[in-house]
Structures are given as structure tokens and as C-alpha cells.
Design a protein that fits this description.
By secondary structure, the chain is mainly alpha-helical. Helix content is about 60%, strand content about 5%. The protein has three domains: about 10-30 and about 80-300, no CATH class; about 305-370, no CATH class; about 375-475.
Length: about 475
């Protein structure tokens, strides 16, 4: 393994970080459109007003992402730019970590792997620009590898434990690193043991907190049991045969790759984590970016002239991504000109739209509508809700940003009315809240999913329609039940 420090290491690092930051700069001006970010802020708002996580407000992830948003909300309010800055810091941590860890396999070529990762994390279609759980997960796993290579096994384990608290699928990265430590002939037995102990510490802290707060059973039910059903639902149903197939393939790949350089094994295990849920969401695939970036650069031809290699790829990689952005914008423009204008066609022009906004060729409202066609509707709905009687809000739909933009707390433990698979008791609680007029204000996104059924009649009898914006209808209670 090459370990030589690259010439002008700090200059290379500064250049990589600058390119990565500039590439993701348009994300700082995004409107509130990503449902996951809206959900996290809705949960943070509720927790800041006394709701207990899991027991009082439902969510199905471990608590780290909610704690992060709760801290931002408590100090800065529901600031989307603030969490995007935190996400950018996590992305820069990934790139900086790769300049260190990748030297073990790439030597002086390591900054190219870091540059590739920084560029990929700035591509909006993978949602590396958003403050979702995966961007923080990979910051932890990247630096866990750095610490493990420097023989700080306990600290590496601790960071892997934190990654798991952002998303359970980090267990795959943790297992890959554990195998690496276990099979290193130069390491003592105590180092793998220290790694496991370090991993267990943050998880034990959360279990202790949950037990003390009286939410341990709710956490297990929502963040573990429900997620098992969520994963099984997309992997073959009650008998998740597809999961068994994935595990079989992973076992076979591990047997083949165990003697290969660690990034190759890490890539296989992180890919298994990204594919575990069986759902093709772009941000799930962020999990593979650190390992994939190293493996890709390992595969690039290298004649031995490292300075030339760095010059070539420090120019070629940004140029390739700029060309891809240009081709994407052109494809979106051609679709629109051909009469196939859609939100997908507009999103293809994400970078071009940001440039037009920057030079004043379009307004921020126009830019927002090009990012997502529901943004302006949701903002208008939130403004309408703010004019309604005080009290909690019930949204029958999947628009959690309305809770945040209106400053309203949820009338039930749920910030969405529709999940797949359904959450036991969720729809019943929502219908009960309408039938018993628990919420002074109800917002329905039409067509209602799931169907209102008996709550539809209760809504017509107990509430009056006060306004419509697009598919959204706002209702105010006629008179609350005693």
C-alpha cells in the first residue's frame, strides 16, 4: 500500500474543498421542497414544544438526525440554509477524510478520489446537497476508516456507532471495517475488541436516554420493528426472499473480495446497505460514495507520474461534471421546447436555473417553481393556515413543510397521512382527530390519500371550507366539541 504524502498536500486539499463547495453552492438557495427535510423540521418543532420523540411524535429513524435538526431549530428556527450549511460541512468532512484515508491505497493520487467524492455529493439528483441522514452517515463512516487506519480502533467504532444512530444501514459499513480490523495480521486481538466496544458506546447512551425518557418501547417499535416491515415490504413481503438473495450475494462477494484492498470490500458492503431497503431513492446511494470514489481512482490508468496524474484529473473531473450539467440542462430545455415541459424537465436544468437566478434573469418564485411545482402552493397554504384560529393543525396529505412554514404543531403524532407500508394506528388517529374536532384547522391535499372515508362526512359537518390553493383545501372548525 502506498503511504507517501502527496506534494503540496494542503494546497490539494484546499483546492478539493473549494471545488466541492462551489459545485454544491446552488443548494444553499433551494426553496423548502424536500419532504424529508420538512419532516425533520416538523419533528424538531414539535420536540422543541414539548412533544416526546417516538412517544409523542412518530418517526422511524434512529434519533441522531432529529437531534441535529432539533439543535438547529432551537437556536436558529426552521432555517433551511442553516441545515444545508451543516450538510455542506459534512460533505467537506467526507472529502477531507478521503484525502487522508485514500493515501493508504492511492498514495499521492488520493486527492483525486476526494475530488470525485466532493463532485458526486454536489449532484442534486442524488440529493447529496440535502441535509438528509446519509450525508451525515458517510461523514462518520469516512472518518471511522481514517481513525482505524491510524490504529484508533475505539474511536473508529464510536464513529460507526454514531453513523448507525443516523441510519441503521450503517451497520454494513461497520461490519466491513470490523472484518478489515479482524483480518489484519499486524493488529492485536484487542483492537477489534476495542472497535466493538467503541461502537456500542453511543448506542448504549441512546438506549439509556430512551429508557430514562420513557420512550424505549416506542423507539423499538417505530425505529426497529416498523423498519423491519418497511424493508420486508419491498423485498418479497412476509417472506423476504429478496433479502435472503442479497445476503447470499454479499456473502459470496465477501469470500471473493476479502483478500482485495479494503475499499473494494467496503464498496460491496456499503452497496448492500444502500440496496437493503429495496427502494431506488437517490440519497440512499450516497452510502457508497466514499468507497466508490477510492475504487474508481484505483482503476484509473497511472503511469507513475503522479504530478501529471493530478493535473490531468484535477482538470478532467470538474470539466466532465460541468459538461454533464450542461447536457442535463440542454435535455431539459429540449423537452420543454418539444412540448414535454414538466417538473422533471425543469429539474434537469438545476444548474442553469441557478445561473439564471444569480444573474437576475428570473425571480426567486420562478426559480422555486422550477425546483418543485408544489413549493409556491405549500407556501400559500401555510400563509392561509396562519390566518386560521390558533391551535394544532392536521394535514391529510404528505406535505410536512406546511407544519413548519405555518408554525403549527401537529394535532396527532403524525406529520404525514400516507406511508408505505402503513403505520399501525396512523390513519385511525387522523380520522379520530377530525371526527372529534381535535384540530381547529385541517388541510386536505386532494385527492386524499388514504381515503377520508367516515372522516369525510365529519369534515363536512364539523368544519367549514375557508380556502383553496391548487389541490389543497383549508378547513376551520365550526365549533370544537366539549
Amino acid at each position: 500500500m502506498e503511504r507517501a504524502a502527496p506534494p503540496r498536500h494542503w494546497v490539494s486539499l484546499a483546492l478539493v474543498l473549494a471545488v466541492a463547495l462551489v459545485w454544491r453552492a446552488p443548494s444553499f438557495f433551494d426553496p423548502p421542497w424536500v419532504n424529508d427535510e420538512g419532516t425533520y423540521f416538523a419533528v424538531a418543532q414539535a420536540v422543541d414544544h414539548g412533544y416526546r420523540l417516538y412517544a409523542g411524535i412518530w418517526e422511524n429513524k434512529p434519533p441522531a438526525i432529529y437531534l441535529l435538526y432539533a439543535l438547529v431549530y432551537h437556536w436558529l428556527g426552521a432555517s433551511l440554509p442553516a441545515v444545508r450549511v451543516v450538510a455542506a460541512a459534512a460533505a467537506l468532512l467526507v472529502t477531507a477524510g478521503l484525502t487522508i484515508s485514500a493515501r493508504s491505497w492511492l498514495g499521492s493520487r488520493a486527492p483525486v478520489a476526494a475530488l470525485l467524492a466532493g463532485l458526486v455529493l454536489g449532484v442534486p439528483f442524488l440529493e447529496g446537497t440535502t441535509a438528509n441522514a446519509e450525508i451525515f452517515l458517510i461523514a462518520c463512516t469516512t472518518w471511522a476508516v481514517v481513525l482505524a487506519l491510524r490504529e484508533h480502533a475505539a474511536l473508529a467504532g464510536f464513529l460507526m456507532g454514531v453513523a448507525i444512530l443516523f441510519k441503521v444501514v450503517a451497520l454494513f459499513d461497520a461490519a466491513a471495517l470490523g472484518l478489515f480490523l479482524l483480518l489484519q495480521p499486524s493488529l492485536s486481538v484487542r483492537r477489534p475488541a476495542s472497535y466493538v466496544i467503541g461502537l456500542a458506546i453511543p448506542i448504549a447512551i441512546v438506549v439509556g436516554w430512551a429508557a430514562q425518557a420513557g420512550v424505549l418501547a416506542a423507539l423499538a417499535r417505530d425505529a426497529l420493528v416498523y423498519d423491519l416491515g418497511y424493508v420486508a415490504h419491498a423485498n418479497g413481503g412476509p417472506v423476504p426472499w429478496l433479502l435472503l438473495l442479497k445476503l447470499t450475494i454479499l456473502a459470496g462477494l465477501t469470500a471473493v473480495l476479502i483478500a482485495r484492498p479494503f475499499p473494494v470490500l467496503w464498496l460491496a458492503w456499503s452497496a448492500a446497505g444502500a440496496l437493503w431497503s429495496g427502494r431506488p431513492f437517490g440519497h440512499y446511494f450516497l452510502q457508497v460514495v466514499p468507497a466508490l470514489s477510492i475504487v474508481v481512482v484505483m482503476a484509473l490508468p497511472h503511469t507513475g507520474d503522479t504530478a501529471r496524474f493530478l493535473r490531468r484529473w484535477f482538470v478532467a473531473l470538474p470539466a466532465l461534471f460541468v459538461l454533464a450539467a450542461g447536457a442535463s440542462a440542454l435535455a431539459g430545455w429540449m423537452l420543454a421546447v418539444a412540448g414535454h415541459d414538466s417538473i422533471a424537465a425543469r429539474r434537469l436544468q438545476w444548474y442553469a436555473n441557478a445561473v439564471r437566478l444569480g444573474v437576475g434573469q428570473e425571480t426567486y418564485a420562478q426559480y422555486s417553481a422550477e425546483v418543485d411545482d408544489h413549493v409556491e402552493r405549500n407556501i400559500a397554504l401555510a400563509a392561509g393556515v396562519r390566518r386560521m384560529p390558533a391551535g394544532p393543525l392536521l394535514v391529510w396529505g404528505n406535505v410536512p413543510w406546511v407544519y413548519v412554514l405555518s408554525g403549527r404543531l401537529p394535532a396527532t403524532p403524525y406529520t404525514s397521512a400516507y406511508r408505505d407500508p402503513p403505520v399501525p394506528g396512523e390513519v385511525t388517529a387522523l380520522r379520530h382527530a377530525i371526527e372529534h374536532r381535535v384540530a381547529p384547522v385541517v388541510l386536505v391535499i386532494n385527492p386524499p390519500l388514504p381515503p377520508l372515508d367516515g372522516a369525510g362526512r365529519a369534515l363536512r359537518e364539523g368544519y367549514r371550507l375557508t380556502g383553496r390553493v391548487g389541490a389543497g383545501a383549508i378547513y376551520a372548525v365550526r365549533a370544537p366539541r366539549g
